[in-house]
Design a protein that fits this description.
Elements lengths: L9 H5 L2 H8 L4 H8 L2 H5 L3 H5 L9 E3 L2 E3 L5 H5 L3 H8 L6 H6 L14 E3 L2 E4 L2 H5 L1 H5 L42 H5 L1 H4 L10 H7 L1 H9 L21 H5 L18 E2 L6 E2 L17 H12 L5 H34 L11 H22 L3 H35 L10 H4 L5 H20 L2
Antiparallel strand pairs: 1-2, 3-4, 5-6
Helix pairs in contact: 13-14, 17-18, 17-19, 18-19, 19-21
């Protein structure tokens, strides 16, 4: 990271009007303390350096005879940190909000956390996403102000700022210390990369890398600018693998530049042929093989070429195995849709939740565990759960088709309305339920006997 020092004298920093006013009013004392202990303060970078806005800026707020903004965008940081801003802008981090807003197929996500209207009422409100998904992915502040609680406060990785830039550096370097040490430790990443759908944190701390960090990380040198394996740290953190430099590799803020697989979509593909739906290739547009070479350069600081090659061969095979299992299970659900046996509404039937969790939860855990030394996540949180999911999907599909057969035998048009409420308004509904239940038992016994 290159810091371009703006020539400001120490006396000018001390007499900074923001600092003087806020100190005298005892407003935000913790913020002042943070800044005074930061590299910015040492370099003479004041509040005004980052928060001053032009009168015509979309996020400008009149304040004490000045125009300022509380939204310090990635582009604002890029005025000094030029390379870091450019690298982050082409990374998957900066696309966080777009991934939230757009499905991999270009359709609006039917995400569970957002507003879904069933039977005339809303089952979940947008508030869940503001405090959930968007807290990490980022909000879209285009044309919005900080008065709007739907978009602010937010420091999501892909926040679309009022000035049009994407990203929030404070996602990793929190205000107002902006610590390099903080961003290099895995705890910075665990704010977002954890949980049932992307448990990179849990996998890391299960791995041998995480075990070493937990044992002796307090003794490592976290502030050395030219951070080197074997000298400043003994085992990699998230930042080491995805960002730090080696003797052959430059450090980068493009966290995607070493990713050879995209492990999050329903079907994993190599990174030179995914993310095009967002109008950009992953990272700098290089091939997945080139990205793989960059990551192996990191691995080979500690491991032999044979060790690394064999590990990648096994991890690649794990991803391919998952892809086959997903294709098998998803074809069952796709068949139900093609036959008109599922409603048009997303996430109103159990089988839709199950196939979603197949890739979004269990499948991600298996794939990520394979690449991050998490055997328990590959097996018991991964492929075991996938096997269980498949059995449940098969059983659900059989029951759905059986119910359709029963409805057809009773003369019910299954293509007209599948709403539970509508079904309950059918004359003689209770009688139909009794007949259907009896037929179900008979048909199940008949099928079992085959």
């Amino acid at each position: 990271m290159t810091l371009i020092i703006v020539p400001v004298s120490a006396s000018a920093a001390v007499s900074d009007s923001c600092l003087d006013c806020h100190s005298s009013m005892n407003k935000f004392p913790a913020v002042i303390d943070d800044w005074e202990n930061s590299k910015h303060a040492e370099a003479g970078i004041t509040c005004e350096s980052c928060h001053t806005a032009g009168a015509d800026d979309p996020d400008a707020i009149a304040h004490m005879g000045l125009y300022m903004t509380p939204v310090v965008s990635a582009a604002d940081c890029g005025n000094c940190h030029v390379a870091a801003f450019e690298e982050n802008t082409r990374s998957l981090h900066s696309l966080g909000t777009l991934y939230y807003e757009v499905d991999f197929d270009g359709q609006k996500l039917p995400y569970l956390e957002s507003e879904i209207t069933l039977d005339g009422y809303t089952t979940a409100s947008h508030n869940a996403t503001v405090n959930g998904c968007q807290a990490c992915h980022g909000t879209n502040m285009t044309g919005k102000s900080t008065d709007d609680p739907d978009v602010w406060p937010n420091n999501g990785i892909g926040r679309i700022n009022p000035d049009g830039s994407s990203g929030s550096c404070a996602s990793c370097h929190t205000r107002h210390v902006f610590s390099v040490e903080e961003a290099r430790k895995p705890e910075a990443c665990q704010q977002c990369h954890l949980g049932p759908d992307h448990p990179q944190t849990e996998i890391y701390f299960e791995s041998k890398h995480g075990s070493i960090y937990s044992t002796e990380g307090d003794d490592w040198d976290w502030t050395e600018e030219d951070w080197k394996a074997g000298e400043d740290y003994r085992a990699p953190t998230c930042a080491v693998c995805h960002m730090s430099g080696t003797d052959e590799l430059k450090a980068t803020h493009d966290v995607s530049s070493r990713l050879s697989w995209e492990l999050e979509p329903p079907v994993s593909k190599h990174t030179d042929n995914t993310a095009n739906i967002l109008g950009t290739p992953i990272s700098d547009g290089t091939t997945w093989q080139e990205k793989r070479e960059r990551m192996t350069s990191v691995c080979e600081q500690c491991h032999s070429e044979t060790w690394v090659d064999n590990y990648y061969e096994n991890a690649d095979a794990t991803v391919e195995l998952y892809n086959k299992k997903y294709a098998d299970s998803s074809s069952i659900v796709d068949g139900l849709r093609e036959d008109g046996l599922l409603t048009e509404q997303d996430f109103d039937e159990p089988v839709e939740f199950k196939i979603y969790e197949f890739w979004h939860h269990e499948g991600r855990r298996a794939r990520m565990g394979a690449f991050m030394m998490g055997p328990d996540y590959v097996q018991w949180h991964g492929f075991y759960e996938l096997l269980k999911d498949k059995a449940e999907i098969v059983e659900m599909a059989e029951q759905i088709r059986l119910n359709a057969d029963i409805e057809a035998s009773l003369g019910i048009d299954v293509s007209s309305e599948r709403s539970e409420n509508d079904a309950k308004t059918t004359p003689g509904f209770e009688a139909l339920v009794l007949v259907a239940s009896t037929l179900t038992v008979v048909m199940i016994m008949s099928r079992k006997g085959k």
